[in-house]
Amino acid sequence: MNTKAALRFIVLLGIVSLFSDLTYEGGAAINGQYLALLGASAATVSIAAGLGEFIGYALRSVSGYFADKSGKYWLFTFIGYGFNLFAVPAMALAGSWQVAVLLILLERTGRAIRKPTVDAMLSYTTNSVGKGWTYGLHTALDETGATIGPLVAALVLYLHGSYQSAYAWLLVSAVLALGTLSLARITFPVPSRLEVGRTATETGFSRAYWLYSIAGAFFAMGVMSYELGAFYLATTGRVGIVWIPVLLAFATGLGVFSNLALGKLYDRMALPTLIGAVLIAALFTPLLFASGFSSLILAMIAWGVAYAVEDTLLQAVIAGVLPEGKRNLAFGLFFTLYGFGWLIGSTAMGFLYLYSIPLLITFAVAMPIMSLPFFLAARAVDRRA
Q1: What is the domain partition of the chain in residue ranges?
Q2: DSSP 8-state symbol, 323
Q3: pLDDT tens per residue across span 121-173
Q4: Which of 88, 165, 241, 353: CA 20 to 30 A from 187?
Q5: String of b and e for 281-317 (b: at least 16 CB within 10 Å)?
Q6: Which CATH superfamily groups domain 2-381?
Q7: Nearest CA-CA partner of 264 in 105, 139, 93
Q8: For the segment 217-274, what is each residue's pLDDT rounded down to a tens digit?
């Protein structure tokens, strides 16, 4: 019975994520081009994306701490989703790149507020369902929305609509996300009742936890933002502007299967799955800048795997080293360090884009590879992963 209830809870929160990802990934698919249209430079686009991701990760430790202290998981979740969702359609009203950047940062702030509580509530199901499968199934639904969102934006542009119209249409999915979240709150008011055994077994933050955190930060440094990639594709004319959101949809669509497959594989052989996925993800940037349409398609496949690493594998890793009574803070702090790595990487790549593409590619490949020794060291002291 607990397994069936746990699966229902995962699926219900997954549907919330489906509609929310449809909203903000639909916006993300056109943010880079829209900022360029409003007069932003390549460095501005990359730094704004990196800063947004940093805020989206850095504030997770703060929201996680207060969620643990107050026990009001659902309150933090609703507040976070409110900011996260409605900042996207508000982009239709932005009259300058400065206002657009502020809305992007607000959207990421909302995600920071609600993400630790969602991850922590899902962690109660990991003993009955499996760590990899819990986050893999949830993220697969999440990525389904992330696939549909860019296609919605692309369809509006294809029908000769404006960027503003594309953002405005995303209000529909934002409302659907909050409606489904309300249903989840009514159906599962106390998610901890889904717990089987003890899902948080550490007495504090273990050595393995910190090694995994350092590894995650290095991996994040090498993940180039799609906004910078979209800026490159749009300004060089390598593909038409309508096809840029379609490429993102293709990548996230493949990510649905990547998350399911990697989630299952992680529960069977954790370390080989993690290492293989990190190496594939490192290929995104060199493939993106390589010539030929086939390399662009391969780049999108690597991009989908990169996000499966973040949204499934890294969450499964941390779910195995959660400290008792601090599970929200544990997820929040891990992704704060992840976001710090993302900010450093995005800032570096923004300037390297202007200075030297070969150096940008070298940096983007080297950082994920540097994460591997830390993953190996963490695994050596954590035999439960």
Answers
A1: 2-381
A2: B
A3: 998 888 888 888 888 888 889 888 888 888 898 899 888 888 999 999 999 99
A4: 88
A5: bbbbbbbbbeeeeeebebbbbbbbbbbbbbbbbbbbb
A6: MFS general substrate transporter like domains (1.20.1250.20)
A7: 139
A8: 999 999 887 778 888 888 888 887 778 878 877 887 787 888 889 988 998 888 899 9
